[in-house]
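Chapter review: from sequence to fold.
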Amino acid sequence: MLTEQTDFSVEELAHSASINYQAFMLGSIAYLKEKNLPVEEWSNFLAEIFASYWPAFASTFGAFELAKTTGLILVAGGGRLTLLEGNQHSSRVVVEDFPETENMTRFEVSVEDLDLMLGVIFSKIASRLNRKLRYHREGNCFEFSYTN
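The token string follows.
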């Protein structure tokens, strides 16, 4: 029987989802590395799938809306939005602390592995939406700049 003790708050749900998001992503990369499988091939596979359905909901997105959605995806995974700016033609979003350094260490995933995955996936999405992406990382900050 469900009681008040089983009613989860929005904060509890978001925190749990963030932890699981990171664990599945980093765990998948760790598995690939353990089996000596290229992270780039897996990233391309995911990119094709993800990019295939983005036009259904994002075909009218300008550059700003695309950056906002990118930020949302990374913040949902535990990142912290530090910058979102732009307009319909060009935009920039910066997210820090995604994923948590402790989790990357736990799964033995490098920042280079993460850069490869994020760059491949979001570049494919941008391309499918006829946008250009410039992806850059400095320290623990990930920057995505979109142009039409």
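Two observations follow directly from the output. Helices lie at 10-34, 39-58, 63-76, 101-107, 111-128. The longest strand covers residues 80-86.
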